[in-house]
Amino acid sequence: MKANETKVEDFLSSNKTQFVIPVYQRNYDWSTSQCKQLLDDILEVGTSKKTNAHFIGSVVYVHDDVYTSSRIKELTVIDGQQRLTTLTLIYLTLYRLAIEMNDEGLEAEISETYLTNKFAPEEEKLKLRPTENNDKAIKYLLRSDSTEEFNDFSKVIDNFNYFKSRITQENIEYVLKGLSKLMFVEISLDREKDDPQRIFESLNSTGLELSQADLIRNYILMGLNRKSQNKIYNNYWEIIEKLAKDESLNTSKVSDFIRDYLTLVNNKIPNKSKVYLEFKAKFPTSDLEQLENNLLPIKSLVKFYNKLLNPKNEPDRAIRTQLEYINRLEINVAFPFLMKVYEDYSENIIDKETFIKVLDFIQSFAWRRFILGLPTNALNKIFMTLYEKIDKENYLISLQKWLLKRPGSQRFPKNNELIESLKLKDVYNVKSKNRTYLLERLENFENKEPVKIEGNTDITIEHIFPQNPDPKWKVDLGTDEYNFIKETYLNTIGNLTLSGNNGKLGNKVFTFKRDLENAGYKDSRLWLNKYLSIAEKWDKAEIEKRFDLLAERFLKIWEYPEIELDDRDENNEVNIFEAEDPKHKKLEYAIFFDQKIEVTQVAKLYVEVFKQLFDLQPETFFTTDLAEKVTLTKTPKEGNPRQPVQINDTYFIEGNIDNIGKFEKIKHALTIFDSEDELTIKYAEK
């Protein structure tokens, strides 16, 4: 490796040289604000008589002794393409301005020194050879043809237009002076002696932060020769990048997709910041054939991931509707599972009816849990391994049985607790997606003419008893009932409906809202207003009657499966936080961090849990009150702890505690470790 401080203009003016941006580099992504900062710096040093140099980072490249047929030296840029591309755009702006100024000398100097290799053939003429899309944009700008339009979206074009708006005849002199003072560190690598991938990872670039997907792409492609790079990129990675995208936001989801894929194959959810490291560990550097074998299943699943992100791409209307619902609920944690189910459907392992029932069942599971307010982090571990629980011969039933067996905070809520929670739940002050999902599905159940509510500005949510009621409401209801409704039922489903005339109905009394001609509940064609059209008044009793109707409909939409669980299905596992008092009880086993522990005594479970927690993160014991709670010590003294129990080669904790106390200390530790869902126990039968 050789590193030298170099003037930018000297580097770019290198004779018969082409700076190649390889396919594994991310696309050009500099924002206008970054372009502004660079140009501001250039103008500042260009106008300063005191500043002789301005450092803008580094450029790292590999030579590989590659020359074109016309003896153009190719330098493969490992890091710095964002800066090089932006500098090229500034020189292109100066070139176009020189043409407008009829300054043929400056035009030729910029073109032949910084932008092109004068005597090279057309395909090798550009000094900077970016990736395909950017290459088209730069060649378009260089042609300077006013009759030609560039219609594709391009950051290159956007940023060129920004520079064009700021670089003028008035400041061109200062821009040129500023460019002449720019410096960076030029780092040349020898592939035989240096490890470009490792150097790339360790660089503290001043450009855009690399995503996990960027790092993975570089890892896959950087070690290959040019021909193999193009093959892997064109046949695999480009397809993954194209499909793993939220098309409505035009944002890449490749990092998330790879994370979901690793979750699926490893049965372990990678930390978002360690997806690249997990990928490297799972797929160590290998030959081209092995690399293709590794990428093939990833490429195979990405088309299903695309439809989960973008339901509009699913051609079947019934399936698309279910995907839209799942999309609104943002059950992204289920994507590893759903990708495989989607694949089974595409391969005819399950039929369309079963696929739709699975999608509907997952909604019921997630939505019921939402109504109860059960912790969402419990879903991570459920969906991580859920696909493995499916019996392909009994697809839906096996899935339903397994989820119905989940204990405690992982449970599938039953009807009684669901209705009890729904009755009082504030469903108005939740995410608008969730709110409209609830009301739209209630409205459209078995409706042959479904009403679209999501994104429909003509229909809004209406409080029947208003948020700011007309004073007549209190007169009609009486103070006690008025206050009760306002405090208890205001934002609950029993008091909410849909209306296209919210503004007209306003805060008026119920009879006015019911009878208003062509706008009231009586004239509404919505199912949600059917009961309101015949109600004589709107009080606590009427809200509760309407709730009963809505609850009945709710249970038909988000069903609890009517299947019987036999003794083998009822395993009575329970989260320790929801377990009965352990006094005078024995265990059959426990499951801690997904590992089954064969223990029959609470005392042994207590020791095992603290052994694992201390091994996992010993510093947590000392940075919280945990060490004090369990009397953690290196050197047990007489009577302290009273009954020392060893948890590793050095440390001991107090063991002289009854079973209830042991459970309390375990739960306290799990709370500190944010691992409340990690310990499940099963009591032995008496």
UniProtKB/TrEMBL annotation:
<dbReference type="InterPro" id="IPR011089">
    <property type="entry name" value="GmrSD_C"/>
</dbReference>
<feature type="domain" description="GmrSD restriction endonucleases N-terminal">
    <location>
        <begin position="8"/>
        <end position="220"/>
    </location>
</feature>
<dbReference type="InterPro" id="IPR004919">
    <property type="entry name" value="GmrSD_N"/>
</dbReference>
<dbReference type="Pfam" id="PF07510">
    <property type="entry name" value="GmrSD_C"/>
</dbReference>
<feature type="domain" description="GmrSD restriction endonucleases C-terminal">
    <location>
        <begin position="413"/>
        <end position="552"/>
    </location>
</feature>
<dbReference type="Pfam" id="PF03235">
    <property type="entry name" value="GmrSD_N"/>
</dbReference>
<protein>
    <submittedName>
        <fullName>DUF262 domain-containing protein</fullName>
    </submittedName>
</protein>
